[in-house]
Amino acid sequence: MFARPTTVTAAVLAGLLTLTACGPAEPATDGASQPASTSPSSSAGEPFADKTPEEIQQLAYEETRTATFKKVRGQASGDGMTGAVELTFVNLDCAGTVSGEGLGRTEIHATPKVLHV
Fold first, then answer.
1. Which residues make Cβ contacts (< 8 Å) with residue 111, sequence separation at least 6?
2. What sign does the CA torsion over 27, 30, 33, 35 have?
3. Virtual torsion, Cα 55, 58, 61, 65, nearest 10 deg
4. pLDDT for 44-90, tens place per residue?
């Protein structure tokens, strides 16, 4: 049976999460994806009605990548434990918290060059 994670383990996991979440990313491409359509949508009420899933993914990626402010908030549970994450991104800087039941709360502040946990 696995031992319950320690505060150090929680801090390491929080750091890895921050590096993953705050770092640059490119959408997964398999070379077969077509570029997003530049033609206006045929249905004003459904902007994605005439788009493929790949086109929607690319549009969402571009909107997220170019946004100067983003906020991520979520909860997860498993094996009798519950955890939460709340991160705010302003340009390339990231700040927030990662917490887990029985593990406390870890504050995170990151810039492209420095990570404080």
1. 92, 93, 94
2. positive
3. -130
4. 678 888 999 999 999 999 988 888 998 999 998 888 888 999 999 99
- Shortest CA distance to 14 belongs to which of 91, 99, 102, 114? 99
For residue 2, give the DSSP letter. P
Q: Give per-residue pLDDT as tens, 83-115.
A: 999 999 998 899 999 999 878 899 999 999 999
Residues 37, 40, 46, 52, Cα dihedral to 10°:
-10
Q: Is 0.70 topped by the overall pTM? A: no
